[in-house]
Amino acid sequence: MNFYMSLRRKFFFSHFFAILLISGSVGVYFYTSAMNNLMSQLRASLMKSAAMVSVMVDARSLDEITTRKDVELPAYQDCLRKLRALRKTNRDIAYLYIMRREGERVFFVVDSDDSTNQALPGREYEKKPKELLEGFVRPSADKKITTDEWGSFLSGYAPLKNGGGKYLVGLDMRSDEVRFKMRQIRLAAVIPFVGSLFLALVFSRILSDRQTTPIQMLISRCRSIAAGRLDEKVDIRTNDEFDGLIQAFNIMSERLAESREHNRNYQRSLEQIKNELEIRVQERTSELNELNNQLVQEIDVRKKAENSLAEAARTDSLTGIFNRRAIWEQLEYHIVLFRRYQTPFTLLMCDLDHFKPVNDTYGHDIGDIVLVKTAEKLRESCRNQDFVSRWGGEEFLILLPNTDIQGGAIAAEKIRQKISEQPFEINDQKLVITVSIGIAAYVEGLSIDDCIKQADSAMYQAKREGRNRVAVSSD
Fold it and tell me: In terms of domains, do 296 and 381 share one?
């Protein structure tokens, strides 16, 4: 099913999605960076806080606290008061606690929790993340939120002074605080994204209108010409390539108007001559001969003009080689030869490598010169019987008659070497240009499109394999 979409909508959606893709990628990058920075800052803060607390408690005073019966010991009570006092100084900290490691097992020593769920001395902590075990040796912090029977937290750890790797102090930050900070970052990311979405809509609409308005005016003008109104002009400036198109269109319209007026005058003259001939045939014989000679000359001029137009229709205006239409006619002709006489032919699809940076760095004028010189090198590298054409952009399609796939590969390598080994000299600069070439030989049953697609696929294979190389179609 053919789905119609106006050019205005195509321009709009292409610009919109391009802007949206760029802004979305930038937004995701900054959002991810902000989240990673937040987590790094939280971990660093927890480790720093744990390290500060760790030097306030001497592990040697905790050796006698081993079971829940030891909660009455002065050492336990003194340490508990310290931890609870420290917890109150930072509202982000939910709990502080001290743990002892015995082999692979970890036990609570002091827990600042003042609820009924307080972990008493000697209670084993079953869930032991890697970061917690690392905290007996050096300051560390959880890389993600951890959930246990007391809730969900992001925790920091540090070994106690004089603990000998057996004691650590831990600080728990509630997951609500962490998630609140993350929500703030998400909110900060959503607002710019919505703004960029709005700007994408606005700029896409402006750009699509700017690009389609001249086209709509040209369509309207064409309809006026079809209706016989040749004196109207397209009066708009876009300050881009459309200006050249509009100017050429207006000139064509003027020439058509002049030609129509000339034809009308000429017809009136002929009518007058006809009437006079009926009265003075003998007197005007010489004049008629002269007019006939003029007519012959004009017809000859017009035939030459028609031949020039026909040649222009078959030639690429920039490079002077065959255009797509001309090479297509040759392809149709050689398919007929193949089916009648089994005469082989091979296609080479050539694409300049990294051509866009040439345009971006040196400008489109230099890019056009590179295309022209490339066309010259292609013609120099081919036989007289070969057909070189510009397929589009920086792509060139070459038809090699009476050539099998092996001969095509030899010719392609010759072309590749000539272009890569002979830099382009432009404005006292040497530009090294390379080309990727795909090769496909025509076989029975293929259409022109199929054969061209095989050559095109082989060319992209050469691109994927590193560019500046030749690839043969595997189909």
Answer: no
Is residue 321 within 8 A of residue 315, CB to CB? The reply is yes
**Quick check: 347 and 473 in contact, CB under 8 A?**
no
CA distances from 429 to 356, 363, 417, 426, 433 (A): 18, 14, 20, 5, 12
Q: CA-CA-CA-CA torsion for 388, 393, 395, 400, nearest 10 degrees?
A: -20
Say if residue 146 is in the same domain as residue 97.
Answer: yes
**Cα gap 470→462, rounded to integer Å:** 6
Task: Report d(CA 84, CA 89) in Å as an integer.
Answer: 9
Residue 453 lies in a domain: yes
Length of the chain: 475
Residue 204 lies in a domain: yes
Instruction: Give a yes or no: residue 369 inside a domain.
Output: yes
The SS3 call for residue 387 is strand
Q: Are residues 19 and 128 in the same domain?
A: yes
pLDDT tens, 438-471?
A: 999 999 889 999 999 999 999 999 999 999 999 9
- Cα separation, 110 vs 95, whole angstroms: 11
CATH of the domain at 129: 3.30.450.20
Amino acid letter, residue 18: A
Residue 151 pLDDT class (50, 70, 90 cuts): confident
Q: Are residues 303 and 346 in the same domain?
A: no
For tokens 């090699």, name the residue: 400
Q: What token pair was written down for 297?
A: 């000359």
Boundaries of domain holding 419: 324-472
Strand partners, 93: 173
Rounded to an integer, what distance in angstroms lies between the CA atom of residue 358 and that of residue 303? 42
Tell me how many degrees the CA angle 154-157-161 measures, rounded to the nearest 5: 160
pTM: 0.39
Partnered with residue 151 across adjacent β-strands are 148
- For residue 316, CA distances in Å to 28, 283, 391 come to 45, 52, 9
Please indicate, yes or no, whether residues 304 and 360 belong to a single structural domain of this protein. no
**Same structural domain for residues 188 and 142?**
yes
For the chain, how many structural domains are there in total?
A: 3
| Residue the block writes with tokens 């307080």 | 118
Q: What percent of the chain has pLDDT over 90?
A: 30
Residues 165 and 23 in one domain: yes
Burial of 317 (0-12, 13-18, 19+ CB in 10 A): exposed
